[in-house]
Design goal:
Elements lengths: L1 H17 L12 H23 L5 H12 L3 E2 H8 L3 H13 L3 E5 L7 E5 L1 H25 L3 H12 L2 H12 L3
Antiparallel strand pairs: 1-3, 2-3
Length: 177
């Protein structure tokens, strides 16, 4: 009987732990900010999406190209860690970027088994073109709230990153300029 009670208690504890946290009231849910993030993201990626469609590329191609262009020599393992996607997903996208001449994969200088990724001239041009579209949108938004708000916005966005990943992400931003 004690085993049954212990199992039931463990089951109840597991059920409570896996339930989504419930806010105290509907007013505690920042619906306006949630929706603004949805719409901002839609438009932020929408401009590049239209250009990427001309190449039969999608958002995954954009993310890969962005990080490869920003960090020449990035390894596949590092890229997988940044993007938090499966190797299978990355391989398909990377293969297309390599075959179309936007990214090249070079043998590692230290470890011949390692593959270092580099944007080609065409890859750099496309990545910069896409970044300029997004920069235009960011700069327009900062003009509305004032350029001094950029630091606050950066802290806010950093606060949205999973705390377990935040330090690593922020550290990688500092090293990519």
């Amino acid at each position: 009987m004690a085993d049954i009670k212990r199992e039931r208690a463990m089951s109840d504890t597991h059920a409570r732990a896996t339930e989504a946290p419930r806010p105290a009231s509907a007013e505690d849910v920042p619906y306006e900010l949630i929706e603004l993030l949805f719409f901002a993201y839609r438009d932020f990626v929408g401009d590049p999406d239209r250009i990427l469609a001309d190449y039969n590329f999608g958002r995954a191609h954009h993310r890969v190209l962005h990080f490869v262009q920003r960090r020449p020599g990035l390894t596949i393992a590092e890229l997988l860690d940044i993007l938090q996607i499966t190797k299978q997903s990355l391989n398909r996208v990377l293969k297309e970027l390599v075959e179309t001449g936007f990214v090249e994969s070079r043998m590692g200088t230290q470890d011949k088994r390692q593959r270092n990724l580099h944007a080609t001239t065409a890859g750099r041009e496309l990545a910069v073109r896409l970044a300029q579209l997004q920069a235009k949108r960011i700069n327009a938004a900062l003009a509305i709230v004032g350029p001094e708000a950029g630091e606050v916005v950066a802290r806010y966005l950093a606060g949205l990153i999973d705390p377990a990943e935040r330090r690593k992400v922020l550290g990688s931003l500092a090293g990519s300029d």
